[in-house]
Structure formats: C-alpha cells, structure tokens
Automatic annotation (TrEMBL):
Keyword Acyltransferase: yes
Keywords, ordered alphabetically: Acyltransferase, Transferase
Signal peptide residues on this chain, from the entry's feature table: none
Residues annotated as catalytic: 126 (proton donor), 414 (proton acceptor)
Protein name: GNAT family N-acetyltransferase
PROSITE patterns: GNAT
Family membership: Belongs to the acetyltransferase Eis family.
Ranges where the N-acetyltransferase domain occurs: 3-156
A Pfam cross-reference name: Acetyltransf_17
Matches recorded under InterPro entries: Acetyltransf_17 (IPR041380), Acetyltransferase_Eis (IPR051554), Acyl_CoA_acyltransferase (IPR016181), Eis_dom (IPR025559), GNAT_dom (IPR000182), NAcTrfase_Eis (IPR022902), SCP2_sterol-bd_dom_sf (IPR036527)
Binding site for acetyl-CoA: 85-87, 93-98
Length: 414
C-alpha cells in the first residue's frame, strides 16, 4: 500500500488536522472553530500530508514555520521550525516520515534557512535526519519552608519593585523583555504576535481554553521593566482547612540577575504557598543558588529539548562567536545532503568556508547540530565515537572553541 506525499490544499486541512489529532492520541474531533483558527495561521505550502493511494485518506502529517534562533554571540539565524509530525499507527514503517522530511529539508535550504529546529517527542527518530540534541531543560521543585528566605520579605533590596499586572499589560511588556533575553541567551527562539495573543488570552483556541494566570513584573529603581513571571496556583487544602498550595511557573523572563533573584524570591514569599515548580529552565539556571539553602530546590525533570539540524554550514558557523581563537577543518557527512562537505572554521575571525584542506575532525550532521549552540562537548562526542579526530589535539581545540560559558536554553515548546 503506497502513499503520495505533497503539500495539502486548504480544503484538505480538516482531514489533515484530524490526522494530527489521531497521531497524537487525541480521539476528539477537530471542531469547526479549531479548524478555522488553525487554518488562518497555517502556511499550506509548508504543510505536508501523506495520502493513502487506495483510500485517499491522510495518513501522515508534517508542518514547518518560520522562526529565528539565537546563537552564541547574540546573532539570530533563520530557522525552519518543524512541528505537527505524525504518522498514523496503520501506516508506520513505510518511509513516510523520511519522504516528508526530505521534502521539507530541500524546501528549507531553497528558502535560505540556515538551520531546522524541532522538539523531539521521541529520542531515536530524528538523529537519522541530521538533527542533534542542542539544548536541554531542567525543572526544579522548591520547598519554600527550607529555602532559608526571610518570611517577612517585602520586596527587592536593590530599590526595584514587583507589581502584579493584568494580561494586557503583560502582553505589552513581554515582547520587549523576550527580545532582551534572546539577545543574551543562545537557543532562545522568536515569539510572534500570535504567540503573545494566545499566551495572554487575547486569542483562545477552542481545543485549549485559556486559563487565567497571574502576571508579575519586576521594575528597576528607575521604573524600567526588567523581568516578568507568569504563574498559576492550585487550591489544595487539608481537611483541617490548612492551605498547602503549589505555584506553577508558566514563563519567567529576566534580563538581569537582579530581576531573576527578585522574581524567584517573590514567588517563594507568597502566602499559603508551600512549593514552587519552576517550569522548564536552562540546566544551569541560577534558581537554586539564589536561595540561602540551594537544597530546598530539587530537580524533578531533566531532559534533552531543542534539536538542531544545520542546513548551511558556512552561514551557520559564521553566524556565531567562539570562546577562543583557533582553526579547525571539519569534514561533515550528511546522507540527506545539505551539510555535506569539508569546511575551514577560523574561530578567531568567525569566518567559515568550504575547503580542500585535510580534515582535523570528521563528524556527521547530527553531531554538528549537537555542537552548534555550545551545549555538547566535542571530547564527549569523540569518546562516544560520534567525532573522529584526524589531527591530534583537534578534539580539545573543538571543545574550547564551541563550548559556551552558560548553557543554551529554549523556553518554548512548538
């Protein structure tokens, strides 16, 4: 039984969306409201379906959209963000994802995208398409009673202040703060106006009803916003009517260390709250060390998160900065094609170009994706056999060149 892979027509979108629901184990039908909302923001040229040639049914789905990815040094590169990937259980192991991925990667390179990104629901799938895990996440649960913070805390000691705001004000302040975060945080991706509309209830998906949240802004002593936290709280009480509530952080943006410290201390000072769940943070986030007793914060989640696939090696490596000077010749193998070649990287000048010089290191596109944002160690990949050292000392140099002082982090699921 074969299937044709192609961009869908707008008239096929309801069936395509239902296939997404089925692939993600959601048995409910996509209603007219959801179909209309999603269709309005869907680029059908970038929305692929696989259609069974016997029944004509949509049996696999794939979609991408434009995104900007921040790389070490603060520059952004155009990315093709992949999402809504699903193959129905009746049509697995027939090469449908491989064909959809090949179509997308060729189109992305033709569009001029430098990388492709995705959040992998399953680890084994995407390495064979040249993606590598490039940024991880961690989540902490804070036991407020153990933090050692003064329970009489009444505000930041730096002259700043924290104020609760409504969703409209958060929507006005948030984009600027996020862009400030993106400028200093590799791995962070762009958020468009619709992202903020959905996050603040201006627009509501029928399949995901908006839930009201609290929004708190940190302002400096000069009154400038430097941080925003969005959070919710449960309503858990004992039989004796004692509150045992947990705060769940939905989003926390801080563009200065002072803002980060103030917002975490604020969350831990809220009456009736015994625990704070931090939401997904960078693995080296300061949250635990901002508490007098860091052991009050325990990691409850630690995982790979953002995966990166380099499409244009010259532009990708030329866009980021490097910790130390040095010259490396990388030979990249890439069965899918776009990244294959031999490249000379001068980390001192940031220049990268194709070359015929002998290779210092040999690696595949997936390993290059893992190295790209600075989270993975070249030495570790060498020990795992993922990178082959052709010139003695090249692995150690690559480790020094690619690694970043702070680990990359992507706050957003897409």
């Amino acid at each position: 039984m074969s299937a044709a892979v192609r961009p869908i027509a707008e008239s096929e979108f309801p069936e395509w969306l239902q296939a997404v629901h089925s692939g993600f184990l959601r048995p409910e039908r996509a209603d007219a409201s959801e179909i209309a909302q999603r269709a309005k923001h869907t680029d059908f040229a970038r929305t692929l379906g696989a259609f069974d040639e016997t029944t004509g049914r949509c049996v696999a789905t794939f979609r991408s959209f434009a995104q900007e990815l921040t790389v070490p040094g603060g520059a952004s590169v155009p990315a093709s963000a992949v999402t809504n990937v699903a193959v129905l259980p009746t049509h697995r192991r027939r090469g449908l994802l491989t064909r959809m991925m090949a179509t997308e990667l060729a189109a992305a390179r033709e569009r001029g995208d430098v990388v492709s990104t995705l959040i992998a629901a399953e680890y084994p799938i995407y390495g064979r398409y040249g993606y590598g895990p490039a940024a991880s996440i961690a989540e902490w649960e804070i036991d407020v009673s153990r933090t050692g913070l003064d329970p009489r805390w009444s505000g930041p000691a730096d002259g700043g202040r924290i104020e609760l705001v409504d969703a409209a004000e958060a929507r006005a302040i948030g984009p600027g703060l996020h862009e400030g975060l993106r400028a200093v945080s590799p791995g962070t991706v762009s958020r468009n106006a619709r992202w903020w509309s959905l996050a603040t209830g201006l627009e509501e998906m029928s399949s995901r009803p908006y839930q009201e949240k609290f929004h708190a802004v940190y302002r400096t002593a000069q009154g400038e916003p430097a941080g925003l936290v969005v959070y919710g709280a449960d309503a858990h009480w004992t039989d004796a009517k004692v509150p045992l509530n947990t705060v769940q952080v939905k989003d926390l943006i801080a563009v200065t260390p002072e803002a980060q410290r103030a917002l975490w201390h604020f969350l831990c000072s809220i009456d009736w709250v015994l625990k704070v769940r931090t939401g997904y943070r960078a693995p080296d986030d300061l949250v635990a060390q901002l508490l007098p007793d860091p052991r009050a914060a325990r990691i409850v989640t630690a995982s790979d998160f953002l995966w990166v696939r380099v499409l244009d090696v010259v532009r990708a490596l030329g866009a980021r900065t490097y910790a130390v000077p040095g010259v490396l010749v990388l030979e990249v193998t890439d069965p899918a094609g776009p990244a294959a070649g031999r490249y000379r990287l001068d980390a001192g000048t940031g220049e990268c170009a194709a070359t015929g010089e002998p290779a210092d290191l040999r690696l595949d596109a997936s390993a290059l994706g893992s190295l790209y944002l600075g989270d993975e160690s070249a030495a570790r990949l060498g020990a795992l056999g993922r990178i082959v050292e052709e010139r003695p000392g090249a692995l150690a140099l690559a480790d020094a060149v690619f690694r970043t002082a702070r680990r990359p982090w992507c706050p957003d699921i897409f």
